[in-house]
Amino acid sequence: MKTIFQTLNDLKNEVKETNLKEKILFLEDSFRKLRTKTGLKGLIRKKKLRKILKEVEYEEELQKLQIELIKLQNWAYENKKRVMIIFEGRDAAGKGGAIKRFTEHLNPRKYRVVALPKPTEVETGQFYFQRYFKHLPDPGEIVFFDRSWYNRAIVEPVFGFCTKEQYDKFIKEVPEIEHALIDDGIIMIKFWFSISKETQKKRFEERMKNPLKQWKLSPVDKKAQKLWDKITYYKEEMFSKTHTSYSPWIIVNSNDKKTARLESIRYVLSQIDYDGKEKSKVSLHPDPDIVQRYHRKNLQID
C-alpha cells in the first residue's frame, strides 16, 4: 500500500498544470508539518489545522534563526567580541520569553542573562551604574539584560523609587556612558518591547489564572494598568533623551509574542557581520512593520 507521500509524488509527476502541482506541493508540505512533534501535539489536542500549521512554521523559522545565533556566538567568542542586548518594555511585554528563545540553544559558558533584583542598601549608596558595570560582557561573551539601568528612566520615577535629582542626573549621564562603552568596543542593542494597554491587561489576567505563571505578578505589575499614562510619559522622555545615532532604541511590536521573538532575533543577526552569515537558510531582514528604530513621529503601540 502506498503512503500518502508516495501517492502525492506520483500525482505530482503525472499532472502538467502548474496550479495543480502547486496544490500538491502545498498538501505535501502540510502533511510533512503534521508529522512533526509540534504537529502531532496539535492533532492530539484537536487544534484547528491552520493553527497547527502556523505553529509548526513558527518552530521551523525559530530553529533556523537559532542556528544563526549559534554562528554569531561562535564568532563573538573566537574574535573576543563583547555583545550586550538590553530588553526593556512594559510588564508582560514578552521580554523574558524572547530572551529564552535567544538563549535556548546557545553555549551556556559563552553567554549570561542579567536580571538584577532591587538594589541592596550598599548599592543604593554607590554610583548608580556601578552594579550594572559588574555584569558588562567579557571578551567573547554575549550578555542579555532583562531590564537594565533604564529602570531609573521609568520604573523608579513612576513608583517614587528615586528623587527628581537622581532621575535628572541619570538622563543626562546615560548617553555619555553608553557612548563610552560603545567607543570601547562593546556592541550594544537596545530593544523596547511595545504592547497595547488591552494586550497587557489580557496577559495579566492569563497570569492570574495560570498557577505556573502567578509568580510573575508583582505589586508593581498590579499598578501598571492604572499608571499607564504616567509610564507613557516617562517612556517618551526616555526615548527623546537617550535615543542616539550610536545607541538607538529599537521598537518591537510585541502584541504577538511569537512574531516579536522571531523579528527581534532577526534584527540582532542583521546588525552583526558574523562568520557564515552569507550561508544562512533563513531571511535576516526584519519586518519593518514589527521592528523599527525609534523616531519622534513614529506611532507607538504603547
TrEMBL record:
GO terms for molecular function: polyphosphate kinase activity. Residues 54-279 form the Polyphosphate kinase-2-related domain. Keywords: Kinase, Transferase. InterPro entries: P-loop_NTPase (IPR027417), Polyphosphate_phosphotransfera (IPR016898), PPK2-related (IPR022488), PPK2_PA0141 (IPR022486). Gene3D superfamilies: P-loop containing nucleotide triphosphate hydrolases. PANTHER family: ADP-POLYPHOSPHATE PHOSPHOTRANSFERASE, POLYPHOSPHATE:AMP PHOSPHOTRANSFERASE-RELATED. This is ADP/GDP-polyphosphate phosphotransferase. The lineage of its organism: Bacteria, Pseudomonadati, Campylobacterota, Epsilonproteobacteria, Nautiliales. The gene is ppk2.
